[in-house]
């Protein structure tokens, strides 16, 4: 059996760390997706540290199935 499909639910512990120094800039595209029949529990943390004058554009796309838990 495959975890999350026909077996036990898949457990996801994602960690994202973004650190921008003084005057830095960045664009981050974060994407979370899963199969239509996948059962999962997701515990995601995004920690962001921006230095003086730093600019961050952060986009998060979630296309997980209705069976996903957060």
Task: Characterise this structure.
With 70 residues, the chain is mostly beta strands. Helix content is 0%, strand content 54%. The protein is built from no helices and seven strands. The chain has strands at residues 10-12, 15-20, 25-33, 40-42, 45-50, 55-63, 68-69. The chain has a three-stranded parallel sheet with strand order 1-4-7, with no helix packed on it. The radius of gyration is 16 Å and the shape is elongated. The two termini are 23 Å apart. The mean pLDDT is 85.
Task: Please describe the structure with a list of short key phrases separated by commas or semicolons.
single chain, 70 residues, 3-stranded parallel β-sheet, two-stranded parallel sheet, 7 strands
Gyration radius, to the nearest Å? 16 Å
Mean pLDDT: 85
Number of strands: 7
The order of strands across the largest sheet is: 1-4-7
Q: Report the β-strand fraction as a percent range.
A: over 45%
Shape: elongated
Structural class: mainly beta
Give the low-pLDDT segments: none
Q: What series of H and E elements makes up the topology?
A: EEEEEEE
Q: How can the largest sheet be summarized?
A: 3 strands, parallel
Specify the helix fraction band.
under 10%
Give the N-to-C terminal Cα separation.
23 Å
Individual helix count: 0
In short:
It is built from no helices and seven strands. The chain has about 70 residues and is an all-beta fold.
């Amino acid at each position: 059996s495959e975890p999350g499909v026909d077996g036990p639910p898949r457990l996801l512990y994602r960690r994202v760390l973004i650190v921008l120094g003084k005057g830095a800039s960045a664009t981050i595209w974060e994407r979370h997706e899963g199969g239509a029949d996948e059962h999962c529990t997701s515990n995601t943390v995004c920690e962001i540290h921006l230095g003086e004058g730093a600019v961050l554009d952060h986009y998060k796309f979630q296309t997980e199935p209705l069976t996903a838990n957060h």
